[in-house]
User: Which sequence fits this backbone?
């Protein structure tokens, strides 16, 4: 019998594996208990995983910058044209709607790109939730489309219905992206100098009914269980048999120095294995490679939705907004006053604490930025909650981890909102907090 447990010592948390086996010797029956400290091993695994994630971001840095510049061009170019035509009194209603839609779409693209980058560097524990693998594949396609060399043609084949599976969406997205990065490199930077750079990257998903297909499955495949088969195929330089035997070894890489850590496929294997899935690989020198990922299908799970309400909620009361960015203060004030609230803004956190104390009981809610100079949001929260434990505080931030969220909740935070926020999202969170 194996038991895994965590214990906290004076030096921090220890992760210990306990094994118990029976013992019979000389007519005496007993048990052997073995305790192994695996703390160092677990921490090394976490560091390897994080290093690989950051390696993926490093490989895509140029493409990310290019995509952000495209997004900013859509915003700044439209705003400059909008201001010019307004000054000439040449703007019509349908033109205004068209320009606003361009700005809105560009802003949404920037939010999506930022969240994808943040998700890649996340260090949270793996959490399995029902998801549509089609959506994960679309995220990867969009990332690659804006990041890879234009000599690579990218084709995506989605399943016609929701491909439901219980997965950690962030990690599965990172797995597929890593395979796509490797495929892109095999068709470009890894080609000999006398070969033309480029090729075709095919990514797709299909349902794999276990037992009804001729493709051999590993022994760990669950009998009678349907799987989702995700494929990443390229026509790059390919691999020989000796290379294929080692590709899942940590630190093994065929890339040139500085092009990779050799952690990618090792982490791909671990992540898929932790999802009770498996991988098949086929490759030929000069013909390319095919990676097939198999993940257990989920028939019953409802897919998590993150849709905002179509309309906003209005209310009454005084609200104090604390943020060191004037633009954030201005737009928050405009939105909340439009919703019916009376709003006071402060860019200086120390002045904000003083203002709140001078108006004890006057503010129904505080919207507090987490990252500020001189005194950060956590310090302001502790200060206010120490003197006014009933104060309602919403923490706002561009990025906040689950660990920080738990710490802030313990310190008295009532709710959280992620920047950038919209009329609907800000109005809803405030209406939820104010009775």
Assistant:
């Amino acid at each position: 019998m194996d038991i895994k447990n965590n214990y906290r010592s004076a030096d921090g948390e220890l992760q210990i594996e306990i094994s118990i086996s029976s013992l019979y010797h000389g007519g005496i029956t007993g048990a052997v208990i073995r305790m192994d400290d695996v703390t160092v091993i677990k921490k090394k695994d976490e560091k390897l995983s994080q290093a690989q994630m950051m390696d993926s971001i490093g490989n895509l840095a140029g493409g990310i910058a290019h995509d952000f510049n495209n997004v900013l061009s859509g915003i700044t170019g439209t705003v400059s044209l909008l201001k010019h035509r307004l000054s000439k009194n040449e703007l019509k209603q349908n033109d205004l709607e068209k320009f606003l839609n361009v700005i809105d779409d560009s802003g949404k693209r920037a939010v999506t790109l930022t969240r994808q980058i943040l998700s890649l560097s996340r260090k949270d524990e793996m959490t399995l939730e029902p998801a549509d693998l089609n959506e994960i594949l679309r995220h990867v396609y969009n990332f690659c489309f804006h990041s890879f060399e234009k000599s690579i043609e990218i084709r995506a084949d989605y399943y016609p219905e929701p491909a439901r599976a219980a997965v950690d969406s962030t990690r599965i997205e990172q797995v597929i992206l890593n395979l796509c990065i490797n495929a892109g490199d095999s068709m470009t930077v890894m080609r000999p100098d006398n070969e033309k750079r480029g090729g075709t990257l095919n990514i797709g998903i299909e349902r794999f009914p276990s037992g009804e297909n001729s493709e051999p499955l590993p022994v760990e495949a669950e009998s009678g269980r349907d799987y989702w088969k995700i494929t990443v195929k390229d026509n790059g330089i390919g691999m020989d048999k000796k290379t294929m035997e080692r590709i899942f070894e940590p630190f093994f890489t065929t890339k040139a120095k500085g092009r990779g850590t050799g952690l990618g496929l090792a982490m791909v294997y671990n992540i898929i294995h932790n999802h009770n899935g498996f991988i098949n690989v086929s490759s030929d020198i000069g013909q390319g490679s095919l990676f097939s990922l198999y993940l257990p299908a989920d028939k019953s799970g409802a897919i998590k939705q993150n849709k905002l309400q179509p309309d906003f909620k209005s209310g009454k009361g005084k609200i104090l907004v604390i943020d060191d960015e004037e633009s954030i203060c201005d737009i928050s004030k405009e939105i909340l006053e439009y919703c019916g609230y009376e709003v006071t803004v402060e860019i200086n956190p120390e002045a904000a604490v003083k203002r709140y104390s001078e108006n004890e009981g006057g503010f129904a809610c505080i919207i507090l930025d987490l990252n500020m100079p001189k005194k950060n949001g956590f310090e302001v929260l502790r200060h206010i909650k120490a003197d006014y434990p009933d104060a309602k505080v919403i923490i706002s931030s561009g990025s906040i981890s689950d660990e920080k969220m738990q710490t802030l909740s313990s310190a008295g935070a009532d709710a959280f909102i992620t920047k950038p926020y919209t009329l609907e999202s800000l109005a809803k969170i405030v209406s939820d907090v104010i009775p």
